[in-house]
Design a protein that fits this description.
With 148 residues, the protein is of the alpha+beta class. The chain is built from 1 helix and 8 strands. Strands 1-2-3-4-5-6-7-8 form an 8-stranded antiparallel barrel.
Length: 148
């Protein structure tokens, strides 16, 4: 046998190196996996619409807190409010694909204000993510209120 995949003397067919044979054996399964990923991509590539009312829960040092967000989405722009016992607090943010991010500014004690930034992933009628405040981060979950 000659080196480099050349035909052996007197042979009609070229001799393939072992690496070429191994590549052919694994090429089919790899192609199936890659094509499957392309088939899934359009589903995740579609933008979601988060407009509506969402009931949220997040864990804080004071225990589980619940609130209601009313979200309005136009394209990737997100506006709305967080409903609280003291009234509505405006929010602004964005939606990119299945990722949502928005910030609200709350009034603290002594007239001081602080930002709360919510980031998360939308999966159907559920959003899960992280809420960041000056005191740290906590997980949060939101469920779309039926019919909104």
């Amino acid at each position: 046998m000659s080196g480099g995949g050349l035909p052996a003397a007197g042979s009609q067919q070229p001799v393939r190196p072992t690496s070429e044979i191994n590549m052919r054996r694994f090429a089919s399964p790899i192609a199936v996996i890659v094509l499957s990923l392309f088939a899934i991509t359009p589903v995740w590539g579609q933008d979601v619409n988060v407009s509506g009312k969402w009931e949220t829960t997040n864990e804080t040092p004071r225990g589980t807190m619940t609130s209601t967000f009313v979200l309005e989405q136009e394209g990737s722009a997100l506006t709305g409010s967080m409903e609280t016992p003291r009234g509505a607090i405006e929010l602004d943010g964005t939606v990119q694909g299945h990722t949502i991010s928005f910030t609200i500014v709350r009034s603290g004690r002594g007239g001081r204000s602080f930002e709360m930034t919510y980031t998360g992933t939308v999966d159907g009628d559920t959003i899960t993510g992280t809420m960041s405040t000056p005191r740290g981060e906590q997980p949060w979950t939101a469920k779309r209120v039926e019919g909104t």
